[in-house]
Amino acid sequence: MNKDLLNILTNSNKDIDNQKLMDYVAGKLSAEEAHEIEKLLLESEFGEEAAEGLSMMNDKSHINRLVYELNSNLKHQLEQKKKRKLKRAIKDQPLWLMTILIFLLLMVLCYLVIHFYLNKA
User: What's the DSSP call for residue 115?
Assistant: First the structure.
């Protein structure tokens, strides 16, 4: 199985290997391995729900395609979010530049006013 297809639960599922979970749902594991997976799934509420949902699918051959689509959609959403955040950061920079410029102009103006009054007296 393609490694990219197994990335969907990489960080959140440390006890159960995604490949073993897919093999369990497809019925490719021995009875001993299946029992081990079932025991691990009972300990994890999310894992139990995931296995139940996967086992309810009628056509098991489409699971790999669905996992790939989920991963690609997730990556797309994260990229869009990153682009929006970067775009927002770029829009905020001119405001900071204007603030600094106004502050510097006020400082120069204060200096000139103070210098003018001190030399006049």
Answer: H
CA–CA distance, 11 with 39 (Å, rounded to integer): 20
Query: pLDDT (tens digit, 9 = 90+) per residue, 37-75?
Result: 778 777 777 777 776 776 777 776 677 777 788 788 889
- For 18-73, give the secondary structure using H, E and C: HHHHHHHHHCCCCHHHHHHHHHHHHHCHHHHHHHHHHHCCCCHHHHHHHHHHHHHH
* Domain residue ranges in the chain: 3-90
pTM attached to this predicted model: 0.41
Q: Exposed/middle/buried for 24, CB within 10 Å: 0-12, 13-18, 19+?
A: buried
35-44: Cβ within 8 A, 24+ apart: 40/15, 40/16, 41/16, 43/15, 44/13, 44/15, 44/16
Q: Which among 54, 62, 58 has a CA at the least distance from the CA of 18?
A: 54
Query: CA 40, CA 3: separation in Å to the nearest integer?
Result: 22
